Backbone:
């Protein structure tokens, strides 16, 4: 009930909001060789959506995206990029919002600001899966990580937004060397290769991949991984952002 | 005076507009080995800006961008891509608009919709310079093509928007093979190389460039260019969009 009060206050206070604009976030994580996307489920419904939110009147859109992601994941300094803005003429969330509000006992008048046409600015985020501590919002009951190949039907154009984010991630993987944001601090070469193979959705030749990665001179070899076994232990690597910046500068 | 009437009617009719959102277009053309950008000057002022406009309430943002570009350049089927949305908290065009309107004798009340905060969706367009027929809008007096290295100070964040568009063009040049949109239908290999060198702002080795371009198998060799001279005439090429699509599919 406390949450509902907070929501009502928020909805009544439309003047504090930069109206007609929302933020939607495609949060990617990598776990057990799967590329995952964070999806929320609204309370008392089977409606699912990307995490998102509104922009305050005195807040820039990039700041709003950072705030929303921090609130949801508990993480600061998230790798975050704007990738596309979605603004079809009929992009109103009225039907969805009326239903999700009704499901928690709130009735909205027809001319309420939240029921109008919304343009959504899409951001994708890359997080270290192991560090995320999820927090639910006032409307949503639960969060799940879904394999990118098994994302369920989402509200509005959120499935389309998710596909667009994946396209951008694939393109930027080499161009900006951003994949490392999805890994823990130290990783083996085969973990790195599995990440690339999963994102690109294709097999890569082991020797070629290793040669290419080492030739970039952006990895620091740390130590051998202790496996306890008799066979050869793999090296551990750490991504060096300074060297990566220098590499991208040279390109 | 007729134009002013049209403008007044437009400004009074805020309900027809999807408010808080505008479109800004970075229109690139290639001429005499220079990459050029189209810039407009507002009537009776020295204020310059990118061509842009508003979105109608029943119009998608991509459709609005197409419409605005058609109105300005006279071209249909323009190569057009959304690249970034600009939404700083203090991004209000009030000061600029008050001045440009005053310059043509229109006073706006403080709470007029056009004076509020605006989020701008940025698009870049690639046009065949030789085919453009420029049309001025109701606010702007004149258009000029500026070399990308000599763009004058523009209103608001329009210089920043221009730089972002150039960054995206450079990135997409290879990834989407879009450079051909800047050339006439037939061109020589050295014209194509000059285009790439200008966009990337660096010299390329002639033999390497030619080998790489031909290896993509996206060019159709048409005929020798008649130069009238005794020396060897260069081949003319035509870009084959079907083969390019097949190439990008394979990649």
Residues:
């Amino acid at each position: 009930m406390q949450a509902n009060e907070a929501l009502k206050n928020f909805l009544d206070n439309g003047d504090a909001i930069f109206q007609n604009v929302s933020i939607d976030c495609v949060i990617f994580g990598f776990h057990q060789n799967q590329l995952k996307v964070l999806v929320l489920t609204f309370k008392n419904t089977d409606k699912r959506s990307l995490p998102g939110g509104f922009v305050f009147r005195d807040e820039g859109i990039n700041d709003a995206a950072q705030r929303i992601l921090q609130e949801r994941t508990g993480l600061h300094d998230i790798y975050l990029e704007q990738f596309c803005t979605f603004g079809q003429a009929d992009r109103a969330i009225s039907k969805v919002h009326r239903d999700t509000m009704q499901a928690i006992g709130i009735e909205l008048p027809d001319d309420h600001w939240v029921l109008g046409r919304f343009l959504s600015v899409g951001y994708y985020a890359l997080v270290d899966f192991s560090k995320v501590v999820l927090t639910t919002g006032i409307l949503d009951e639960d969060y799940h990580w879904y394999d990118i190949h098994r994302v369920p039907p989402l509200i509005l154009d959120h499935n389309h937004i998710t596909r667009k984010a994946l396209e951008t991630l694939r393109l930027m993987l080499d161009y900006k060397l951003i994949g490392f944001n999805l890994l823990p601090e130290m990783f083996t070469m085969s973990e790195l290769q599995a990440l690339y193979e999963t994102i690109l959705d294709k097999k890569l030749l082991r020797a070629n991949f290793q040669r290419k990665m080492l030739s970039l001179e952006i990895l620091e070899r740390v130590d051998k991984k202790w496996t306890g076994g008799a066979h050869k232990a793999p090296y551990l690597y750490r991504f060096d952002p300074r060297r990566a910046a220098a590499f991208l500068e040279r390109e």
About this structure: Chain B has two domains: 2-174, 183-250. The interface with chain A takes residues 18-21, 55, 57-63, 82, 84-85, 87-89, 91, 117, 119, 121, 171, 175 of chain B (CB under 8 Å).
